[in-house]
Amino acid sequence: MSRESVVRLPLYECNEHQFVENIRRLLESGEKFVVNRRITLHDDARYGPATLPDQEYSRYSSLCVRKSVNSTVYAKVPFVDSFHGGRMHDEQENLHAASSLLYPRMSIPYYRVEYSVNVWGGTYLFTFDALFNPQIAIEKKTGRRFGKEGALVHVLDYGQPEERVLAINLPKEVMVFDVKHMIRVIDHSSNF
């Protein structure tokens, strides 16, 4: 297939209000459509404790310390990050910074949630991120770093966001399909 024969369909990125309003208008028009939702897990260091607003950062305050938003975050106490394979962080270790840290040592996993509807050859798309919830506990760990008797240590794990965080307020008449892989299908049958 040559480059000239590739058909590019329009993609309209919307905010939540625009997306819901487009759905409402489609319902009023009587047009048939399907709303898809795709949820993918990401842990690419896009989010970390340095960039969190103060209200969200307070959930990490038993493990970390920072001066303000976008400032360097240091470990307040030694802890184990069990979500990232049991990675151990020492006290005063540089964990995350909004800039000048090429390889952040602490990242927050998140779901990328994508709602889409294909209508009249175009795709309306609304995308947002939902951060995982930190779960901090004190557990007894054994091993090379903790000695034969073991030691009590802080453990950071992450729980999945609640379903209500992954949903948007759509009209009652709309049914949402969760899909694993979205493949953009080009339907040429209407051209004949």
Keywords:
192 residues, mainly beta, 5-stranded mixed sheet, 4-stranded mixed sheet, 3 helices, 38% strand, elongated, disordered C terminus
Radius of gyration: 22 Å
Q: Low-confidence spans: pLDDT under 50, at least 5 residues?
A: 183-192
Number of spatially distinct domains: 1
The global form is elongated
Task: Please outline what is shown here.
Helix content is 11%, strand content 38%.
Structure in words:
By secondary structure, the protein is mainly β. The protein has one domain. Helix content is 11%, strand content 38%. The protein has 3 helices and 12 strands, in the order E-H-E-H-E-E-E-E-E-E-E-E-E-H-E. The strands form 3 sheets. Strands 1-9-8-2-12 form a 5-stranded mixed beta sheet, with helices on one face. The protein has a 4-stranded mixed beta sheet with strand order 6-5-11-10, with no helix packed on it. The radius of gyration is 22 Å and the shape is elongated. The chain starts with 10 loop residues before the first strand and ends in a 13-residue tail after the last strand. The model is unreliable at 183-192 (pLDDT under 50).
What order do the helices and strands come in, and which of them pair?
Blueprint lengths: L10 E3 L2 H14 L5 E8 L11 H4 L6 E2 L7 E3 L3 E3 L5 E3 L4 E3 L13 E10 L2 E10 L1 E11 L3 E13 L3 H4 L9 E4 L13
Parallel strand pairs: 1-9, 2-12, 5-11
Antiparallel strand pairs: 2-8, 3-4, 4-7, 5-6, 8-9, 10-11
